[in-house]
Write a structure and sequence with these properties.
heterodimer; A: mainly beta; seven-stranded mixed β-sheet; four-stranded antiparallel β-sheet; about 0% helix; about 50% strand; globular; B: mainly beta; six-stranded mixed β-sheet; 12 strands
Amino acid sequence: DTGVSQNPRHKITKRGQNVTFRCDPISEHNRLYWYRQTLGQGPEFLTYFQNEAQLEKSRLLSDRFSAERPKGSFSTLEIQRTEQGDSAMYLCASSFEGAVNEQYFGPGTRLTVT
Amino acid sequence: GDSVTQMEGPVTLSEEAFLTINCTYTATGYPSLFWYVQYPGEGLQLLLKATKADDKGSNKGFEATYRKETTSFHLEKGSVQVSDSAVYFCALSGTSSASKIIFGSGTRLSIRP
C-alpha cells in the first residue's frame, strides 16, 4: 500500500503529558498537511510543509504544538502538556506541489486526553 | 473568511432512492470545490471536484455542479446503494491560501436495504 500512513492510530494519554504523532506521505509528494477533526465536525487546517519548509500555520496551532519535516519526507506533530481539549482525530495529507487541490489523506491518529 | 455550510444530517434513505446533499459556500475569490467521503473506519477520500464555474464533477454515480450565481455545490446521486453509507464533506480550497482546504461539518448518510 503506497498511501499516506499515520502512527499510532490511537493514543490515550493523561493531561499534561507530551505526545508525538508520525505521518508518512505518499513518497512522490512534496507537500504535507496536518488537520484536526473533532467529533461531528469537518477537518480544520493546522499547518503544511513544502519539502522541509513549514510554509503556513493556522492560529489553531498554539505554542504547545510543533510540527517538523526534517528531511522533507515523514513529518511529526508534537503536542506538549496535553489538555482535554486536544482530544481529536489528527489527520495528515499529502500532495504534489503542482496539484495542491489533490490532497490524499491518511487514516488519522485518534488522541484521547484523560 | 471563506466557509462552507452543508446540510445537517443524519440523512436516511432507502436503497435506490435519489440523493441530494446541499452545500453552499462563502468565498471572496474563485475557489475550487470538492466533495470528500469518509467510509466507516477509513480515511477521507476525494469523491469529486470542480475547479471553475459551471464545471460538473462526477464519480461513482455522484455528481455536483459548481454554481457561482448561487454559491452552491450540491451533491446528487440518482440511485443510492447500501455501500454509499458514509459521512460526506463539502469543501473548498481557501482563496487566501490555495494550500488549505476548508471543510463543512459533514453529513452522515445511511442507506436502508
